[in-house]
Specification:
By secondary structure, this protein is mostly helical. The protein is built from 24 helices and no strands. Helix 7 packs parallel to helix 9, helix 19 runs antiparallel to helix 20 and helix 23 (627-643) packs antiparallel against helix 24. The chain is elongated.
Length: 687
């Protein structure tokens, strides 16, 4: 295993320092459970300053909401334990649903509020008159830990989010540049974009958390707008490259037949070299593209339409790439970056709409609520003194992992490592801590284990394990102003914690034994349903909604498809589907301004597209488009060429060309009559 880096040790040292500061202040204030402050530090600490600040803010809000809920519910239902159990379960289900709907760092507010209530409320049911004092004390302890973590993170060698975001973007651009090079050199032969390339959508989605943390980072706050612009352009690159993939494969087929334009092929390779780092200028490339773009009056056959469309896509790629490089320098805080002015002037295409599978969300949240209710009834029936912690820990586990495709493996890790942390803490508590007589000696006892564990928290593959060891261990130590540990009480509380985790694991095995395939199937079918509705005109959307929701869905799907455990019938090219939807929306917009014959032909195309995706949705598998749909598209192209007049007709023609390439990339060229007007291909990213 790779040893922790200097940055990992720095994070661990800062976290331990903040934890000891919080513990010292809590002891000085004589708070009832000062170890909660120490535990909170490890829960909210993050290597990046902005992430620590944002997480601290959200945890503070969630704690206050949960504590308020506890103060309201306990006095109201304390005389009816079953009703209190139902109220707690409903609270957890409702707030967990809101948390899963958000899917941003803000969701932590709702999740924390969901499981904070049972942690505070349930241990007080035997003494309900103390609920306000307990809620106040817990809030004070947690807020103290939050303030200490934020203070140390911001003052002691703060680590800005900006460079980390720039490094992640740099890695993304390297991968996207490699794909662009393959596409532009004609090295891609597959009609379907490989999963490794579609995964770029998921990688951009992973940047959202970093981008949202910029607002909480004093050093990077000024670049929040540029980071948002960068995210939009990164996402816009994906359909552009997917579209170029189709066009370049068509050019490759022309080369095989000896009819390709060598100048276009050479230009594409020059752009690939520039993206790869060759010394060139985007201004020269744009001038070269303008020289090779066919004159609008010469667009009289299929090759000329494809060439014009290819030139439009190449220009858009150059503009996008130049913007991405400039914005990356801005986010990294490069002093030589200067003021950024956009090169790509394009209508907004990236919105904030996200995909939500409300059926699965309701299932997951209802499962968590029922698990909490069942655990509560077990506690009531058994009269177990430690039952409050049993129910609380079951609720915590279900809130953390209940929405996973297969939560059982994660919950089992909680069982194993949570128990391990309690055993280690128990050994320290009953053998070492009794020998400690002052705070300095306590720090010396804790420094080695907590520094070792803290240095491994930043590693994604070990984050859950080490956080469980740090948080559960610090809580189980139960450091107080005076040593009063009781072995029987400790064992009972430890069994309650482990029992809660174990109950959540058994519950997950019984209620959610399926894996990623069901989720992936629903994601794919939801996308096909969206396309069918767009083509049928039953669901009005704009391009921003389509792009943001489709790419969000694609990001959720790719990781599941890449696992290799998904049925081959679900394999789909999400970027191609996005381009289809984009062109369908253009046709829906422009067909109303066209003469009767052209409008009727486009209506037939839209009906065919809607029927095709409805068939796929019912079949639950990707199918080849029907041959009749190709005939409808070709007839619509001929009808628009015959009656072409105005920008709406030009846009519709380009949308039809893009739709044909997306649905039938290997089809022979259609027979077209001579065009009577001009075409000025617009910049439509997903054609």
């Amino acid at each position: 295993m790779k040893l922790p880096s200097a940055r990992d040790w720095l994070f661990s040292t800062k976290a331990f320092t903040a934890a000891m500061l919080a513990l010292y202040v809590a002891l000085a204030m004589d708070l009832p459970r000062p170890y909660w402050a120490m535990t909170t530090v490890y829960v909210v600490s993050h290597p990046l300053t902005g992430a620590t600040t944002s997480k601290a803010l959200y945890r503070m809000l969630g704690t206050l909401i949960g504590a308020t809920g506890a103060v309201v519910l306990v006095p109201t239902f304390v005389s009816a334990p079953e009703l209190l159990s139902i109220a707690v379960a409903a609270w957890i289900g409702g707030l967990l649903y809101l948390s899963l709907l958000d899917r941003t760092p803000r969701s932590y507010v709702f999740m924390l509020a969901a499981y904070t209530l049972p942690i505070i409320a349930l241990p007080t049911v035997t003494a309900p008159e103390t609920i306000f004092d307990v809620a106040l004390a817990r809030s004070e302890e947690i807020i103290l830990g939050i303030l200490c973590a934020s203070l140390v993170g911001a003052v002691v060698f703060p680590v800005s989010v900006g460079p980390a975001l720039a490094a992640r973007v740099g890695g993304w651009l390297r991968d996207a540049g490699a794909w662009a090079g393959e596409v532009l050199r004609g090295e891609v032969t597959d009609e379907v974009v490989p999963l490794v390339r579609q995964k770029l959508a998921a990688d951009v989605a992973a940047l959202d958390a970093l981008i949202m943390q910029l607002a909480h980072d004093p050093e990077a706050r000024a670049f929040a707008r540029e980071a948002g612009e960068l995210r939009g352009r990164l996402l816009l690159l994906l359909p552009v490259l997917s579209s170029l993939n189709d066009r370049m494969r068509a050019i490759t087929r022309e080369e095989a037949m000896g009819s390709a334009r060598d100048d276009l092929v050479a230009l594409a390779r020059e752009i690939a070299d520039w993206i790869g780092g060759a010394p060139d200028t985007p201004e020269r490339l744009r001038a070269r593209i303008a020289e090779l773009t066919p004159d609008p009056g010469a667009l009289r056959d299929w090759p000329s339409l494809l060439h014009a469309n290819l030139c439009a896509r190449l220009k858009e790629l150059v503009d996008l790439w130049q913007d991405c490089l400039a914005l990356r320098r801005q986010v990294a805080g490069d002093p030589a970056a200067g003021h950024w002015a956009p090169v790509l002037h394009h209508r907004p295409v990236i919105g904030t709409a996200r995909h939500h599978d409300h059926g699965l969300l309701l299932f997951s949240t209802a499962s968590a609520a029922l698990a909490t209710l069942t655990a509560s009834l077990i506690w009531i029936a058994s009269g177990w003194p430690g039952g409050a912690n049993f129910v609380a820990m079951a609720a915590v586990a279900c809130c953390f992992f209940g929405a996973q495709d297969r939560p059982a493996p994660f919950l089992w890790m909680m069982v194993v490592w949570g128990t391990t942390a309690q055993v280690i803490a128990g050994v320290l508590l009953f053998t070492v801590v009794p020998q400690v007589h002052d705070f300095a000696m306590l720090v010396l006892v804790l420094v080695l284990p907590f520094l070792l564990v803290g240095a491994l928290i930043p590693r994604p593959e070990l984050g859950l394990v080490t956080l469980l060891l740090a948080a559960t261990g610090s809580g189980s130590l139960s450091v107080q102003s005076h040593y009063n540990a009781d072995f029987t009480v400790y064992v009972n509380e430890s069994l309650a914690v482990t029992g809660g985790f174990l109950f959540a694991w058994i519950w997950a095995l019984a209620t959610k034994p399926f894996g990623a395939e069901i989720t992936a199937r629903r994601l794919v079918r939801s996308g096909w349903a969206d396309l069918a509705a767009c083509a049928a005109g039953t669901r009005l959307q704009d391009h921003r909604v389509l792009v943001s929701r489709t790419l969000d869905r694609l990001g959720l799907l790719i990781l599941r498809l890449a696992s290799g455990a998904i049925d081959d019938g679900l394999a789909t090219d999400g970027l191609r589907d996005l381009r289809i939807g984009y062109n369908v929306l253009d046709l829906q917009r422009d067909r109303r301004a066209l003469p009767g014959a052209a409008k009727d032909a486009i209506n037939a195309v839209l009906a065919g597209v809607a029927g095709h995706f409805r068939t796929q949705q019912k079949a639950g598998a990707a199918l080849l488009p029907p041959a009749g749909l190709l005939d409808h598209v070709d007839e619509a192209i001929r009808a628009v060429l015959a009656q072409r007049a105005g920008q709406a007709a030009d846009n519709a023609l380009q949308a039809l060309v893009g739709l044909r390439q997306a649905l039938f990339p290997g089809a022979a060229a259609p027979l077209l009559p001579p065009a009577r007007g001009a075409v000025d291909p617009p910049l439509l990213a997903a054609e």
